[in-house]
C-alpha cells in the first residue's frame, strides 16, 4: 500500500512526471476503478495492444475486455485488496476479436483521493502458444502408436534419452531399462545386417534414413523393425539428437512373403510355377553359355489325366497331382527344379549337366528313367489304384540364342511328338539327339533280348611269354546280333553297365571261362584265363559268392582264374575294394590291374592290394617305340612291377617293333595281334589241346595267388 501514500504526498510536478512515465512506458499499463471495473485510463502501449483509443477505453469496463467476466474480476480485486495476491493470468479479447493471454500485476493506488488499481500487463500469448505446442507435441509422442526413440548425439556412443510408451510396448523394455544405453542392444547378435551400414552412414552424414532391421524384443522374440531415423538440429544448425521412429512390420513381412510365394509357387503342389521356372531357366541358360556346359528342359505331361479327373472328380485329380509332384521332387537331383505349369503339365530344369553332349544326354536319360519309374508306381487314391504314365519331351541348351520361353516351347513340341508316338514315351527336340537316344534304346532292348537268347560268345586271346609260348588267355565277350553282325564290347559294355545287365553277363562269361579252364586242365594243359570284371559287377554284394559258386559248379581250379579290374574300381573306395579283393583271393583267384596307366597311376597303392599282375594299357604300347613319354612310362611301370614282384602283360602288341622294344626292357608277357587275335573260345581250347606241348608254358598259370 506504499504507492498510494506515496502519490498522495507528491506535488503536481511529480504527478505530471508520473503520468508521463505511465503514458510512455513500453509495458501495457492501465488504471481501473475496482468499485465498478471502469477503465479510468490506459497508456499508449495498452491502446496499441487492445486496438481501442483512449477515449473509447475510458467508456469501457475491464470485463468488456477480460473474458473472465465481472464476477471473477471482482473476486480478483478483492484478493488484491486483501493482499492475498496481485498476480493473475487472464485472457483479453482485443478489438479485432482475437483473444490474447496476459499476465497482470495489480497495484492498488490512490489518485486524487480515489482508490484505483494500476495494472501492468504482459502479453504472453506467444509464449503460451509455444508452451502449448510443446505440451501437445509431448502428449502426441506419448500417445503415438509408433515407437519413438531419441538419442543424444552430443554424448559419446549416443545414449538413449527418451522412449515413448509405444516403444516400451513394442520392445518390452521400460524407459528406465533403456535410458542411457546405445540402442544397438535391439539387434541382439545380428550386427551385420544389410540395413545397418545404411544406418551407420546416415548417422555419420547427419541425414535421414529408412531401413528394415531384424530386432529382438526383451523376451528374445524377433521382429522386423521398419526404422526411420532423422537428425534433430538446434538453432545453430548443430545436430543435438537423432529421433528414431520404429514400427513392427513382421505381420506385413509375413504377408508379403506369402504374396511372393503365391506369385512364384503353384498353390496346389507348392512347386515353383511357370514364372519362377522361366526365371531359373534364364539364369541356367546364361550360366551354361558362360561355362560351356549343357543343361536340359524336360517337359512332362501325364497320359490320360483328363479321363481320371473327369471320372473320379477334381479332388482325386488334385490328390494325384500332389502325389506326382512329390515323386518328381524325390526323383530329381538337388540342383534341378521341378515345376508345375498347370493342369497335368510338369517341367524339369536340369542345369549344368556336362560339357560333353553325349554324357549330358546320358545324364538326362538317367534322370528320365528315374522319373518314369517314379510316375509308373501305382498311385492309391481312396479305394482305387491308378496306373499313370507320362509323355516326355526334352530339349538341350544352350544351342544358340534361344530364350527361356523358346526352350520351353521346344520341350513342349517334343512332348507332343512323344504323345503322338504313344503313351509313356520320350522324345527329344534335337533330331540328332533323338536318333542317338533311339539307337541307344534299341540297343538296350536288343541287349536284354540277347541275354535271354544267349547270343553272346566267349572269345579267347592268347597271352605269350618272351619265347612266344602260350601262358594264358584273356576272355573277351562277343555279341552276334540278330542280323548276324558282331558288335564290339566297347559299344555295349557301357550300356550293360548302366542297365545292370553287366551282372548276369559277367557271371555268364565267368562260367564260360571256368569251363574252358577245367577242360584244358583235365586234358593236362592247365593254363590260366583272365576275365574282365566291370565296376558294377565287382561292387555287387554277391560278387564273392558268385565267383565261389561258379568255381564250385565248374570244378575249375581257382588259381587258374585271373580277375581283371581297373584302377577306377579300386579307387572309388579303396578300403572296401581291398577287403573284397582279400575275400576273393582267399578263394585262390589272382588279380590283375587292366589298362594300367590310364587311371590314377598312383603307384603307392600297389603294395596295399593283393595283386599278381599289371597290364600296361595298349595306348602306351602302340607309341612306346616312337614316343619318349610313353617309352619312359612303360619303363617306369616295368620297374615298379619288378620292385613289387608283380607280373606284367603288355597289351596291344601289334608289331615286331613293339615286341623288340618290350623285350629290350625286360617285359615278360605279351598280348596282341602280333601273336594272336581273339578267337572263339572252343577254337582256342582246341588249338591248345591239339598243339605241341612245347608251345605252352604253364609255369605262370600254376603259381599260387600271393
Ligand atoms: P580290355 O580288357 O583291355 O581288352 C583288350 C582289348 O584289346 C580287347 O578288345 C582286344 O580285342 C583288344 N586287343 C587285343 N590285342 C590288340 C592289339 O594288338 N591291338 C589292338 N588295337 N587291340 C587289341 P575288345 O575285345 O574289343 O574289348 C574291349 C574292352 O571291352 C575290353 O578291354 C574290356 O574292357 C571290355 N570287355 C571285353 N569283354 C568283357 C567282358 O566279358 N566283361 C567285361 N566287363 N568287359 C569286357
Ligand atoms: Mg581286359
Ligand atoms: Mg586292357
What keyword list fits this structure?
Beta-Lactamase, Alpha-Beta Plaits, 706 residues, alpha+beta, 27 strands, binds magnesium ion, binds ligand C2E
Fourth-tier CATH superfamily name of the largest domain: EAL domain
If you consult CATH, what is the topology of the largest domain? TIM Barrel
Count of separate structural domains: 4
Give the helix/strand class.
alpha+beta
Percent helix range: 40-55%
Which strand order does the major sheet show? Answer: 18-19-21-22-23-24-25-26
Ligand roster: ligand C2E, magnesium ion
CATH class of the largest domain: Alpha Beta
Mean pLDDT: 90
N-end to C-end Cα span: 136 Å
Number of helices: 26
3D shape: elongated
Share in β-strands:
15-25%
CATH architecture assignment of the largest domain: Alpha-Beta Barrel
Number of strands: 27
Itemize the secondary structure elements and their pairings.
Elements: H1 2-8, H2 12-24, E1 28-32, E2 39-42, H3 44-50, H4 54-58, H5 70-81, E3 87-93, E4 99-111, E5 114-123, H6 125-143, E6 147-152, E7 160-163, H7 165-171, H8 175-178, H9 194-205, E8 209-216, E9 222-233, E10 239-248, H10 250-264, H11 274-291, E11 295-302, H12 305-312, H13 314-331, E12 337-342, E13 345-350, H14 357-376, E14 379-381, E15 384-386, E16 390-397, H15 404-421, E17 426-428, H16 431-453, E18 456-465, E19 470-480, E20 486-487, H17 489-499, H18 502-522, E21 528-532, H19 535-539, H20 543-554, E22 561-566, H21 567-572, H22 574-585, E23 590-596, E24 613-616, H23 618-623, H24 628-644, E25 647-650, H25 656-664, E26 669-670, E27 679-680, H26 681-690
Parallel strand pairs: 16-17, 19-21, 21-22, 22-23, 23-24, 24-25, 25-26
Antiparallel strand pairs: 1-2, 1-5, 3-4, 4-5, 6-7, 6-10, 8-9, 9-10, 11-13, 11-16, 12-13, 14-15, 18-19, 18-26, 18-27, 19-20
Helix pairs in contact: 12-13, 13-14, 16-17, 18-20, 18-26
Bound molecules: ligand C2E and magnesium ion (2 copies).
